[in-house]
Amino acid sequence: MAQEDVFKKLVAHCKEYGFVFQSSEIYDGLSAVYDYAQLGVELKNNIKKYWWDSMVKLHENVVGIDSAIFMHPTIWKASGHVDAFNDPLIDNKDSKKRYRADVLIEDLMAKFEGKMDKEVEKAKKKFGDNFDEDQFRATNTRVLANKEKMDAVHARFVAALDKNDLAELKQIIVDNEIACPVSGSKNWTDVRQFNLMFSTDMGSTAEGSNKIYLRPETAQGIFVNYLNVQKTGRMKIPFGIAQIGKAFRNEIVARQFIFRMREFEQMELQFFVRPGDEMKWFDAWKKTRMSWHKSLGFGKEKYRFHDHDKLAHYANAATDIEFKFPFGFKEVEGIHSRTDFDLSQHQEFSGKKIQYFDPELNKSYVPYVVETSIGLDRMFLQIMSEAYQEEKIEKEDGKVDERIVLRLPLALAPVKLCVMPLLKKDGLPDKARTILNNLKFDFNCQYDEKDSIGKRYRRQDAIGTPFCVTVDHQSLEDNTVTIRHRDSMAQERVEISKLYDIIEAEVSMKKLFKKLK
Q1: Per residue in 416-465, pLDDT tens?
Q2: Is position 98 annotated in a ligand binding site?
Q3: Fewer C-beta within 10 Å: the chain N or C terminus?
């Protein structure tokens, strides 16, 4: 099945089973805005906890804050967002659709890369275990031809970004005959810059109101609180401040479900270091963050680093951790060395001294900052994309059954356990309710007594529940139940008194944390 079709099924699955809804759906929806439903919010909260605990609990020199969404408007002038937070946009004159020029060019390069990957996959099937991928990529004429085309576009693209040459961005689109995905037309307007910040007015009257912005990132809330945290927490360099919060960007080209939205959530760490030490910490956090992603068990081949073609005005190094979604490798986390830009700017614009006195060096300085910033919504989509699977199961009678299963990491699954009485009579529901009531303080549980046991198993598979516990007549006699494992579908008879230990050993986040390096 084509990856595009898999992704469409995943989007439908998210709605059907209560993970993600279109915002304001009864009013025909609001573009690029989504609501997390009853299961989606549980998964989202578990991802937050995994990130937060791995940052704050596991690092003695990292603390957290929760800053306000509304901030003084001068903050965004100091940070450069008022003047420089832009996307290069281009319109197709025939379809009247608007696109990001850089994304159109990146998609073109991804097509070249996709063609190379297809050649590699065909060769893998042909040569089997004897296949040498590196040698094939270095010698195959079709691969080399596509690589040459991709490299040529990439070189022009990087040069145009460095010079902020909007005319050259359009020329790359024209020269490569990039067509509008909707109409197929190649009739383009010029490229122009568009500021992404949402603005609003604060005040009781129009005359007395102040123009403020919905924050486009959470980082600035950390920077303006740097001194407060450092002094009250008696923090010593190096140390970090973590935050999870909403951010808002007026994305004109919002697409691919929850991958790019106008209202989204970020999980960010700003790590303050001595000037000169930033590259050492930049490399250290690259390793730490990649380890965090890989501990979920999706396979190391699903991840890669991608260094930025153009550095932001505040950075001296930047890379992305990319994940292979059904629509290709895309960024899920950015790691940046932000130098002392942010703190120095706020020191200048506020007129307040924002420095750190280093007792070891016996001098004061503005710290440098290494940032890790991960999109929570993209992380959610990454996990769902990898977990969604359609399986064919051969039964004992030779017939083939099918099931949709979410192979979510057990610690992140929204529901950890479903308790099911085999029948709705003979005291089995009462016994099942007793088990549920004993476990619900420790695990998010469900109770299900409707339909056959097989259909109930399938419902739980579809939402990613790791364990199903079935109560039958034998349970009334010897206090044992059947516990079924989601991934293997294996069943075993266990004592009710041992359920907590069995489940806790598998779903605890400790298992994930112990994989971290």
Answers
A1: 999 999 998 999 999 999 999 999 999 999 999 999 999 999 999 999 99
A2: no
A3: N
DSSP string, 461-516: HHHT-SEEEEE-HHHHHHSEEEEEETTT--EEEEEGGGHHHHHHHHH-THHHHTT-
In this prediction, residue 201 carries a pLDDT of 85
pTM of this prediction?
0.84
Mean pLDDT of 250-270: 87
**Cα–Cα dist 450/484, whole Å:** 18
- Any known ligand binding at 279? no
Q: Is the pLDDT of residue 345 over 80?
A: yes
Confirm or deny that 250 is annotated as ligand binding: yes
Confirm whether residue 232 is marked as ligand binding. Answer: no
Any idea which architecture 415-513 has in CATH? Answer: 3-Layer(aba) Sandwich (3.40)
CA–CA dist 463, 456 (Å, integer): 11
Is residue 251 a known part of a binding site? Answer: yes
pLDDT at 2: 63
Q: What percent of the chain has pLDDT over 90?
A: 73
Q: Which fold has domain 1-78+196-275+325-404?
A: BirA Bifunctional Protein; domain 2 (3.30.930)
**Residue 266 annotated as binding site:** yes
* Domain boundaries of the chain, sorted by first residue: 1-78+196-275+325-404, 415-513
Q: Is 393 annotated as a binding residue?
A: no
